[in-house]
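__Record contents__

***
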Amino acid sequence: MAIVEPETWKDFLADPFGVLFSGSGIAIYGGLLGGFISLFIYTKMKKINPLHLMDAGAPALLLGYGIGRMGCHFSGDGDWGIPNGNPKPLSWLPDWMWSYTYPNNVIKSGIPMENCQGLYYTDDFCNVLPQGVYPTSVYETMIMVVFFAIFWMIRKRVKVWGLMFSFYLIVNGIERFSIETIRVNHRYESFLSLSQAQLVAVSFIITGLVTGFIFYKQHQKRQLMNEN
């Protein structure tokens, strides 16, 4: 299931199930929602504190997201940025890290490639973007790998139950909000010209801050009870 963006509420009301369960949209957030529901059910059945599993899974969520974004990059599924005609800041930087045209992209976006027909088992993937764009998926992978390493190093030092997952929500929200500034996405004029992903990212940041505060206060109460 994916969290999607209907063009209007009329579209949503006309076919709510088709919109909610379509293959388009921000699938990562739909996956997180489904995973959270499954985790809640599992921990209830096994009588496990869900906060422990959420903390344990936080680093893996970062790494998994980063790896998944490389799949977006190599397939050319449309998760790329706005056109980038700026000169490379570093001469040795490869084109695919700065301004990439995504040849043979799977969504058939762009213009037909020369001498492509007949080279593969199908001619469906013979398009290339007419202008290089920011390879935002590559940037997201790099960012997430760095934060995975940080989370992995601090995982045994954080003693507050649930705090690692709160950190994950904050990091995910800040990263996604930032990368959206150079991504191609529809923006809502009524919401400060933010994209759907940015609106969700803001909710992630707020949720992470609020839950982190609550978890920390609960940790302090447990410490006081143990001392008494």
